[in-house]
Write a structure and sequence with these properties.
Blueprint: H1 2-11, E1 16-17, H2 24-38, E2 42-44, H3 45-65, E3 67-68, H4 72-100, E4 110-113, E5 116-117, E6 127-133, E7 141-147, H5 158-164
Parallel strand pairs: 1-3, 2-4
Antiparallel strand pairs: 4-5, 6-7
Helix pairs in contact: 1-4, 2-3, 2-4, 3-4
Length: 169
Amino acid sequence: IESALQRWSSRCDGKLNPDGKLNPQEIISIVRNTMDKSAGIIRKKSKVIGAMDTLTELYKQIQSDGWHIETNSDLLYAHRAENLLITALAYLHNIFSYIDAGGGSRGSALIEKDASYLPENRSLRNIIFRTRFDSKQRNLFRTEQIPVRTVEYKSPSFEDIYIKYGGKL
């Protein structure tokens, strides 16, 4: 663990110092609470947008103000907090892109609009929303829609496999 922490610490260039402003454990708590309120089973576009803006500003604040680090434990929490924050932003951007494309409620979540829930948009079953980090974007990510690929695969029967590997029927 020590060498992994040292590698991450050296990569952070000035974001880790005793004079830094941000407490990693507090950031983890903020990210968790934000995700609970905006990316749970009931989702609303305006809450997702607000959460993206909040967490984007938090990410930018980390870049400018740095982490308050006094111990190796703090360093470990800073690493965890930054990864959690980036992952949360990716999820939020993907959720936003799905809702913005007309996505409705489906197995994992209900999409709320005007005090009711949107039905599933079945046309989006054939679309994958691929989200990638892009520091030039306002909320640090971009999402593109790509069609689902069809896979041509016919599974051989158990009996065919059994015989192929020496079994007798």
